[in-house]
Specification:
The structure holds two protein chains of two kinds. Chain A is of the alpha/beta class. Chain A has helices at 12-23, 57-62, 73-78, 119-129, 144-147, 162-166, 186-191, 193-210, and strands at 4-8, 39-41, 47-51, 68-72, 84-88, 94-100, 111-116, 132-137, 153-158, 170-178, 180-184. In chain A, 32% of the residues lie in helices and 29% in strands. In chain A, the strands form two sheets. A six-stranded mixed sheet of chain A has the order 2-3-1-4-11-5. Chain A has a five-stranded mixed sheet with strand order 8-7-9-6-10, with helices on one face. Chain A starts with a strand and ends with a helix. Classes of the chains: A alpha/beta, B alpha+beta.
Chain lengths: 211, 410
């Protein structure tokens, strides 16, 4: 039996995605909240879920190691891959934004130092504004960078803004809306068209019931 | 053993080339070769998607810049243009050659073997359908069961946006959205642009114009398109109708969101996919406009596949073949002459044979059959049984009755 392999990162988005599928009668009884399993199958043995790091989801899908992936738009923006992006799941909603100390000027300045997990997206954004930048790529605790004077501003995803607020930072400019997307390997879409369209349908139905 | 794996890969490589060549020949294609070095200028003058940074450059003694063959289609077309000018009569050529490109990704080899065909003929649904059939046939020959050929039309997107006056950046962005079938993104992007609602609707529908041919053609009927776009659709539909006559219905997917990936394609374009492999293994299309860049009309359609991708794609399949040797002959010194005779006779019949003097145990685990030639008796053994044989005829009978002709020969 050929499985449909779905890659996603563990966490809230994965749990919501599984909930959606549950509405369409695709259940993962094997799964428990504290499970450390990296590979699980649905009860009908049609879908194989693999848990990978979020930034790796597009890599798995582009190479065909997974047929389908669920991943944040932010990851796709920073590392565009040759895959289909078929559905906006509308979950994991947040914004990509420029943040810093209140009143930090980000227009009509010649130069900015920017710390971000998304250096490519950030650079392109400021390039369009005509501002030269120095990028500092960080992997976490981005908010720290302006606090200790390493950068003028940061570019990061902002959900509630609590972390920013507690560190005395504010959103200076919103750049883009981010939400979880369903991406598909191009070869899989050709060879497993029906299975994938069924999976998308199941997801969509779950979306409608839940929203 | 690593060396063993390597040897198997190379053997597979050769087998696939053999299979493809044979299939191309049955469609009337003749093998050609092109020079290993081409003029750099040839590639800077022609519209192509091959990145010039990727080419491997060499300087000859006169100081002229040459490149190591980055593709076959362009120099072949140029050569034929010089020889014939306009299309005198149809010509069919195939090639199996290394092409050289430096990619920026590590681990990617610079030289890759490509096998492909070029069919120089007037543009017609018949010719295009036959070429698509050949692509599918060749992939099935290699041993894939789940072959899918995605067919699109290179001019479709360009015709659609022809009147829109988009900037270069806008066109690139729109292309990117369509290639990703990003339904969510296309709508908002188009809303920013002042465009005709009818065109907008078609562009928005593009990602959905994918799938089983009948479904796509039905959907197209409900869309309003310009005359030139309609001509493209009619051509595609006619081509598909012939492809259907070839019995390929289940292998075909229509994808109008497939966008020209080679720069010089002008009509039908297609890509081949096989089971459990994440990238296209075959790409092709019609390139009538390429010869026009050399100032003549030499319309053509062709495709190429990368042998390394096919090897990788087959590696994921369970190998039909468990043994690398068909027969191993063990002999006692006094029977050497007979052993040599048997080995020769079997090899004449295309079996893979190894012979060696019997020392200790007569066992060879990578061989399907073992023969023992002892002083008093001749034994033939496979995994199931061991039996005696009198002469070569009896031996051959027992092998062919079970095994038939050697399965590795193509």
């Amino acid at each position: 039996m050929d499985y449909l392999t779905v890659a996603m990162a563990k966490g809230r988005t994965a749990e919501r995605a599984m909930k959606f599928l549950g509405k369409s009668d695709v259940r993962f009884s094997e799964w428990t909240d504290d499970s450390r399993k990296l590979v699980i199958y649905d009860d009908k043995k049609k879908i194989k879920l693999i848990f990978v790091k979020a930034v790796d989801v597009p890599v798995y899908v582009e190479n065909g190691a997974a047929d389908v992936g669920i991943v944040g738009k932010d990851v796709m923006m920073e590392d565009p891959r040759d895959v289909y992006e078929l559905l906006d799941l509308g979950i994991g909603k947040c914004k990509l934004a420029v943040a810093g100390f209140p009143d930090t000027p980000i227009d009509n300045v010649p130069f900015l130092t920017v710390a971000s997990k998304y250096p490519l997206v950030a650079k392109e954004y400021f390039d369009k504004k005509g501002i030269r930048t120095e990028m500092i790529k960080l992997n976490g605790s981005i908010e720290l960078a302006p606090l200790i004077g390493m950068s003028d501003v940061i570019v990061d995803i902002v959900e509630t803004g609590t972390t920013l607020k507690e560190n005395g930072l504010v959103v200076l400019e919103e750049m883009a809306d981010v939400s979880a997307r369903l991406i598909v390997n191009k070869a899989s879409y050709a060879t497993k068209t029906e299975d994938i369209q069924q999976f998308i349908q199941d997801m969509k139905e779950g979306l409608e019931v839940c929203s | 053993m690593y060396s063993e794996i390597l040897a198997n890969e190379h053997e597979k490589h050769e087998k696939i080339i053999g299979t493809l060549s044979k299939r191309f020949t049955t469609y009337g294609y003749k093998r050609i070769k092109t020079s290993a070095f081409e003029q750099y200028d040839l590639y800077s003058n022609v519209r192509t998607s091959i990145n010039q940074n990727e080419m491997v450059k060499v300087i000859d003694y006169t100081g002229e810049v040459l490149v190591l063959r980055p593709d076959v289609t362009i120099p072949l077309t140029q050569q034929l243009v010089q020889l014939n000018g306009n299309l005198p009569e149809e010509m069919r050529y195939y090639y199996v050659q290394e092409v050289f490109r430096q990619t920026f990704q590590e681990n990617e080899p610079i030289g890759k073997t490509q096998a492909g065909v070029e069919y120089y003929c007037e543009s017609s649904p018949q010719a295009d359908a036959e070429t698509i059939m050949l692509a599918c046939h060749a992939l099935r020959d290699v041993g894939f069961s789940d072959v899918k050929i995605e067919i699109g039309y290179a001019g479709f997107f360009t015709e659609l946006i022809a009147d829109l006056q988009l900037t270069k950046e806008q066109t690139a962005e729109l292309k990117r959205l369509i290639q990703a079938k990003n339904i969510v993104g296309i709508g908002p992007f188009l809303n920013q642009l002042p465009i005709d609602p009818a065109v907008k609707e078609v562009l928005e529908q593009l990602p959905l114009l994918y799938g089983a041919p009948q479904v796509v053609f039905d959907r197209l009927q409900n869309l309003q398109v310009s005359e030139s776009v309609q001509l493209a659709i009619d051509y595609l539909q006619k081509t598909y109708e012939i492809v259907e006559l070839y019995g390929l219905k289940k292998h075909i997917v229509i994808d109008l969101g497939l966008i020209n990936h080679m720069g010089y394609y002008s009509g039908i374009i297609f890509q081949g996919y096989v089971e459990n492999f994440g990238k296209p293994v075959l790409m092709g299309g019609r390139y009538d406009s390429l010869s026009e860049e050399f100032g003549v009309k030499l319309p053509a359609i062709g495709f190429a596949c990368e042998i390394d991708s096919l090897v990788k794609a087959t590696a994921k399949k369970k190998l039909k073949e468990r043994y690398s040797i068909d027969v191993t002959v063990f002999y006692q010194e006094s029977r050497m002459k007979y052993a040599i005779d048997i080995a020769n006779e079997l090899r004449e019949r295309d079996y893979r044979v190894v012979s060696k003097p019997l020392r200790g145990q007569a066992s060879a685990k990578d061989s399907e059959y073992t023969i023992q030639l002892l002083e008093q008796q001749n034994l033939l053994a496979d995994v199931e049984e061991t039996k005696e044989f009198e002469d070569f005829k009896q031996l051959l009978d027992s092998i062919t009755s079970k095994k038939g002709v050697p399965e590795w020969t193509i």
